[in-house]
Amino acid sequence: MFQPSDFDSAAIRARAAQFRSQVARRLDGSLTEDEFKPLRLMNGLYLQLHAYMLRVAIPYGTISARQMRQLAKIADAWDRGYGHFTTRQNIQFNWPKLVDVPDMIDALADVGMHAIQTSGNAIRNTTTDAFAGASADEIADPRPYAELIRQWSTDHPEFQFLPRKFKIAINGARADRAAIRAHDVGLQLVERDGEIGFQVFVGGGLGRTPMIGKELRDFLPASDLLPYLESIVAAWNLAGRRDNKYKARIKITVHELGIEAFSDLVEAEFPARRAAFKGADQAILADLKAQFAPPALPSRESASFETALNVDALLRDWAARSVSPHHNPDYAVVTISLKEHGAPPGDATSDQMRLLADLAERYGQSELRISHEQNVILPHVAKADLPALFESLRKGGLATANIGLTSDIIACPGMDYCALATARSIPLAQQIATHFRDLGLESEIGTLKIKISGCINACGHHHLGHIGILGLDRAGVENYQITLGGDATETMALGERAGPGFAYTEVIPALERLLRAYLDLRQSQSESFLDALRRLGPEPFKDALYQEAQRHAAQ
Amino acid sequence: MSKKFTPGVISANDLREGHVVYMNDAGQWVLRLKDAAFLDDPVIAEMWLNIANAQTEKVVGAYLAPATLGPNGPEPAHFREAFRATGPSIELPGI
Ligand code: HEM
Ligand code: SF4
Q1: Does residue A116 form part of some domain?
Q2: Is residue A323 part of a domain?
Q3: Is residue A52 part of a domain?
Q4: Given A136, A166, A217, A314, which residue has the most CB atoms within 10 angstroms?
């Protein structure tokens, strides 16, 4: 598995020591808050509604058992015994005290982790498909490229004063599990005539102006990645707007200039930058590829698993949701749900983190992944070990068989934590999950992606939900806007607003009407909500949502 | 003042620990909203806010949080302030 270099470890240590002294100077009064705020944000430390929040990077969602155990320790020692895994493959601690944060950062550095560039106008943590290096449908592992980008972008001298944050996502499989076109730059690994390269998208993003990334290159040779990325960031760094924070993201630059004109700017930068790279990056990449090489997986029989499936219905239900094909037929990729019905999506207690670490060591090559859908993945589990793994997960309350179903909801922290929120998200997610379970409709409804954000910043990806929910403040009351038809995959689409918003207590009944209408309208059980919506258009679904409201209005 | 004045209390987050605090009649930082000084005079509110903002060694992000005066002291005038006063509306994991 990949290990940070000594240089990186030293840099992380140096940064930790630097931040310790900055905190000390803040506490003794030599720094004002105005002076300190940019420094703490550079180190992932936010101030939320009730407390500070420390955001820790989990680069490309890959984390070792040892690191996971350290996160559990940090949660116990300096937080309230849990952490929140986010759609950006980070973990957030919700209750750190400023006085303790330097110790937390040291504890992270002990296992090669940090909170650098998890906030602020920086090139952020590059996200990838959480099945990277394991899935059967992979073209190439995106992580060596993600790590190359991390090394290139960290403290890049030219990009210390970017107009705004910059997010890159890379997907290496045929199925897009990284929502690449919702990022400033989205990279899809492709193969052409035996050569590996990237299809490059630019200008995607959510927030108040959601946009789907546009294709900038249909094939970029992999060896040109860094100079080309540098050209993109440089073009935006010069042309991007700095007069208005809401227009500063690259999606606005691309939108205002048009993709052709933006492409011209990039191509104008490219030749000189390409010449300047001189191949040093390719040497590093070769080394990274070796480090990310898949673990040696001994061959194992898988017949016992098939037998167990036939006799154990619970295992069968769980496996149907949680087990995905591995490139090695004796193995499987396992998705562990952090969406127990009624629990806050993406939260894990320190006990659960330790269990995950233990199970990764016992059954999964000591490796774990965090998915952008806020679940945890064991990428390399022998099929023969699945029954035992399932038993352990069950004992630890981590065997919820709901991956891809109604209750597998993405939700941002919303007003239960976030200072920017206009409404709550978590309790809605909790109620949706338990409501449809109690109705017994969850497996009937089948594949459904519900995504909830507590404000227009869209951290919960609501635009990309088959059903999106956006919490707003309407004259001092929580109000929820519903969007229909979003899609986070390779067929990416932005959901369309269905109509007027719903009060907090009206959301669940509205969703029930909507989903019952879907069950009536679908052609067969295999037609998903999204497929039915695409076939029929939104009208019949809007009718269901607003039926009751219209009746009230007519009275 | 450019914005229409809304009565309220001075609130902030504690610098060292991050928790929510309110300013009482004696200018001290206290934990409970009902113990906060209720400010319904714009001039006095502005004065207190300036005092609070000067205490950068104790608190972060002082502002005038909308409140009304109830029988037992100030009460939140907006749901955001209600959540700030009582903490997350959800059960926290593992506690
Ligand atoms: C609680 C503290 C948080 C704050 C203050 C915060 C702030 C923001 C802001 C201001 C934006 C809008 C950026 C823009 O449009 O230029 C944003 C976008 C975003 N945030 Fe957060 N966020 C927080 C938590 C989270 C969490 C928990 C997640 C993951 C679950 C997350 C993931 C994202 C994502 C995916 C976007 C996408 C929109 C985009 O970049 O186009 N954030 N955040
Ligand atoms: S969407 Fe809004 S409420 Fe939710 S985490 Fe992002 S900034 Fe906070």
Answers
A1: no
A2: yes
A3: yes
A4: A166
Q: How far apart are CA B12 and CA B60, in angstroms?
A: 6
CB-ligand 1 contact for A87 (6 Å cutoff)? yes
The one-digit pLDDT tens for each residue of chain A (555 residues) are 666 666 678 888 998 999 999 999 999 999 999 999 989 998 999 999 999 999 998 988 999 999 999 999 999 999 999 999 988 888 999 999 999 999 999 999 999 998 876 666 778 889 999 999 999 999 999 999 999 998 888 878 888 788 888 999 999 999 999 999 999 999 999 999 999 999 999 999 999 999 999 999 999 999 999 999 999 999 998 888 888 888 889 999 999 999 999 999 999 999 999 999 888 899 999 999 999 998 999 999 999 999 999 999 999 999 999 999 999 999 999 999 999 999 999 999 999 999 999 999 999 999 999 998 999 999 999 999 999 999 999 999 999 999 999 999 999 999 999 999 999 999 999 999 999 999 999 999 999 999 999 999 999 999 999 999 999 999 999 999 999 999 999 999 999 999 999 999 999 999 999 999 999 999 999 999 999 999 999 999 999 999 855 655 544
The answer to whether residues A19 and A95 belong to one domain is: yes
Q: Which atom of ligand 1 is nearest to the CA of A164?
A: 16
Question: Of A267, A291, A315, which residue constitutes the final position of a domain?
Answer: A291
Rounded distance, CA A390 to CA A396, Å? Answer: 10
List the structure tokens of A198.
Answer: 């990237």
What residues of A are in contact with residue B17 (Cβ under 8 Å)? 51, 97-99
A150 and A277, same domain (yes or no): yes
Q: Residue B75 and residue B95: Cα distance in Å, rounded? A: 27
Among candidate residues A269, A291, A313, the one where a domain is terminated: A291
Sign of the CA dihedral running B47, B53, B56, B57: positive
The CATH number of residue A318's host domain is: 3.90.480.20
Residues 6+ away with beta carbon under 8 Å from A453: A411, A412, A414, A425, A459, A460, A461, A462, A468, A469, A470, A471
A12 lies in the same domain as A151: no
Distance CA A26, CA A24 (A): 5
Assess whether A448 and A493 both reside in one domain: yes
Query: How many domains does chain A divide into?
Result: 4
Residue A349's domain spans which residues? 303-395
Reading the block at residue A545, the tokens are 């949502």
Q: Is the CB of A83 under 6 A from ligand 1?
A: no
**Is the CB of residue A88 below 6 angstroms from any atom belonging to ligand 1?**
yes
Ligand nearest to the CA of A244: 1
B57/A80 Cβ within 8 A? no
ipTM above 0.90, yes or no: yes
B93 Cα to chain A: minimum distance (Å):
6
List chain B residues with CB under 8 Å of A29: 56-57
Q: Considering CB atoms only, which of B57, B83, B95 is closest to A416?
A: B83
Alpha helices in A439-472 (DSSP H): 442-445
Question: Is residue A65 a contact partner of residue A358, using CB atoms and an 8 Å limit?
Answer: yes
Say whether both A455 and A520 belong to one domain: yes
A417 in the same domain as A379:
no
Please report, for the domain that includes residue A540, its CATH number: 3.30.413.10
- B78 and chain A: CB distance < 8 Å anywhere? yes
Same domain, A287 and A139: yes
Count CB atoms within 10 A of the CB of residue A301.
11
Atom 6, ligand 2: residue with shortest CA distance = A459
> In this complex, which of B15, B19, B94 lies closest to A349 when CB atoms are compared?
B94
A444 and A367 in a common domain: no
